[in-house]
Amino acid sequence: MPSSTLLRPASVLTAAALALSATATGALTLTSTAEAATGDIRMTVAPSAFTASDGTTWAARSGFDGGDYSRSYTSGTIKGATDSRLYHPELVRFHSWARPVENGTYRVTLKMREQWWTKPGQRVFDVTAEGRTALSNVDIVAAVGKDAAYDRTFDVTVTDGRLDLGFPWKKDSPLLSALQVTRLSGTPAPTPTPAPTPTPAPAPSGAVVARVGATSSPVKDAAGNTYEAASGFARGDVWVAPSTIKNTPDQQLYRPERVRLTTWSRAVPNGTYDVTLKMREAYYDGVGRRVFDVAAEGVRVLKDVDVFAAVGKNAAYDRTVRTTVTDGKLDLSWTSKVDNALVSGIVVTKASGTMPSPTPTPTPTPTPTTPESTTAPKAAKGKLSGMHWDSGMYPMNRAGEVTKWEQNRGRKVDVITVFPSRESWGAMQSTWFMDGQRIPAGYAGTLDVGVPLWPNDGNLATAKAGGYNAQWEKLARNIAAKYPNAYIRLGWEMNLPGWKAAAHANTAEDWKTAYRQAVTSIRKGGPNLRIAWVVNEGPGQTGTPDARVFYPGDAYVDHIGMDAYDWDPRYTTDANIAYHRDGAYGWNFWLNFAKQHDKTFVLPEWGIARANPNGGGDNPKYINFVYDWMLKNRDWIAYESYFDETESYIRSDLFTGYNPAASAEYKRWMSLLGRS
To answer: Can you say where in the cell this protein is located (predicted)?
Structure first.
């Protein structure tokens, strides 16, 4: 990034899309404006409370199970909105929302808008309320187009003291700007002397009282039983294993997990119940890596649960316990000892006279140990493009842009630049950036993955102490499962102060220690992943001009590089080009640093910056310089990726008609860069 003031879109900063949506079935009210009625709950998805132009206050975001928050691209008008500011924020990639409420009937209004996608079918999701579908196939663009307010309203009855909403994903992910919950008039008021609530009729012995899955979507097992969408959990993050789960035909039940959960509850008649926890270990491959206890009704019923020790990795593991409920609510709790507790499903059955027989535990197959890699192996460069190095682009998180780029430049893409979300570890572990809407079907290249040294809610002290090591290993496994040789641009542009995980001169040693912790864990999860240490071109802005003080050592780096855009000074004169090429902390400076450490050089972000006042406009001279320089140094270049962005903060896009001179120059170079 050229400067801390030149920002990537929110899709790159924390979330891939800036939009909101929802659709409904049943008794729904569709409104075209953003009017807020009086209600029990008004909530924006922004982290701070908001007062609308009509004086109503919208509370800060709470109750969501995760998600990525972004501010709008624009402060402009949202069509059909009484107050556009209410629709500017968005939350995406979340699964559920919950709030304790009194039992009764409520009207829920979801407030949305789409600022990212432009065509129907590009973002589609459902909404569930209390485990039942309330809105089907929500598609904002199909309903009202882009940049327009879209409100959907439905009614729901709560009987368990908590309102649970789920958001099953279909295309891309759900999004939301605000929500409102109003208790409907006509709900019986409490009488001065309330009568005791009748105890519900007990279920017959052996009857299933609840089947609950780990995600926001219902799922059926092989026997045809439906597991309702996740509800009753106090917290937890959802992750879906990429591997087949052994010892079960129910892949859709066991592959998802809810991890970092603490409690689960369900209103039930008083009585005795058998509770079956359905689990599998799809992440760790050793005994003692994940250990936890489970309590039912405040009494510990399972001690030192270690799924891997029992059945190995990627194998179904069920444990059944018996508990007696005397207060009308079944309560389970998990105590994590090593790493975090997990569960894939819960089944509650009215107890018969004897405990059911436990599921036989298969003997685990020993897992071969893969030696740790010290450096990533070298791979053939330019295999798809036919160029001297891996060549690619940042496609704005849209698979279709990759295809268009290949068609226009006349060469395949070797590498696609992506940015996982970074609001929290839960957000960073989401694999949305590798799904079919971001990566074209049949793509045979690799990825350039830009990740900070810790998420926005993290800190240097924890990173230095290795507190995020398990998270790094998990993220690496997720990436390596699809792209085993991906470039991991860890802590990129650390010399810019705008990043929350920037490196500062007064804590340089701590930052380097944190970097080494992360690399060691990444290589455990993906031994062939390639670590790229990448600065921003020019003097650093974090207490020292020289970013070399942040270099963690050769053992922890596979490639050295920089990001460099056409600006400050713009590449429009020979003198300015010489400044960038030969000056301190410029192109030759960092190439020579790479050579000194026997590392190949990478250029993961480069591009014109026509929309920036300090940029060189539609500048073919910049394109010519970049490729001429790389061709002269081709034996040292590992990969380059053009930052192709149509948003108004930069307008670096090629082949769209907006920058014809730069586009023509880029295309001219494509005919010159083939390997002989």
So the answer is: Endoplasmic reticulum membrane
Class of domain 10-183: mainly beta
Burial status of residue 391 (CB atoms within 10 A of its CB: 0-12, 13-18, 19 or more): buried
Higher pLDDT: 376 or 617? It is 617
Catalytic residue list contains 114: no
- Could you confirm whether 406 is annotated as catalytic? no
Give mean pLDDT, residues 384-410.
Answer: 96
CA distances (Å), 344 to each of 202, 215, 247, in order? 27, 9, 15
Cis link prior to 527 (omega < 30° from 0)? Answer: no
Residue range 390-670, CATH number = 3.20.20.80
* Confidence tier at 202 by pLDDT (50, 70, 90): low
Mean pLDDT, all residues of the chain: 85
| Tens-place pLDDT, residues 221-255 | 888 888 998 888 877 778 887 788 998 989 889 99
User: At a CB cut-off of 8 Å and minimum separation 6, what does 438 contact?
Assistant: 16, 395, 397, 398, 399, 416, 418, 432
Active-site entry in 130, 401, 493, 645:
493
- What class has domain 208-350? mainly beta
As a whole number of angstroms, the distance between CA 125 and CA 21 comes to 8
Output the DSSP codes for 171-182.
ES--EESEEEEE
Q: Which amino acid is at 570?
A: R
Name the catalytic one among 605, 645, 647, 665.
Answer: 605
Domains 10-183 and 208-350 share a fold: yes
pLDDT at site 495: 96
Q: What does the domain layout of the chain look like in residue ranges?
A: 10-183, 208-350, 390-670
Read out DSSP for 248-305? Answer: -S-HHHHSEEEES--EEEEE--SEEEEEEEEE---S--STTSSEEEEEETTEEEEEEE
Q: Is the pLDDT of residue 477 over 90?
A: yes
pLDDT, residue 93, reads: 84
Query: 317 to each of 208, 241, 307, 362, 367, how far by Cα in Å?
Result: 20, 15, 7, 9, 17
Listed in sequence order, the residues at least 6 apart from 353 whose beta carbon sits closer than 8 Å to its beta carbon are: 205
**pLDDT level of residue 168 (50, 70, 90 thresholds):** confident
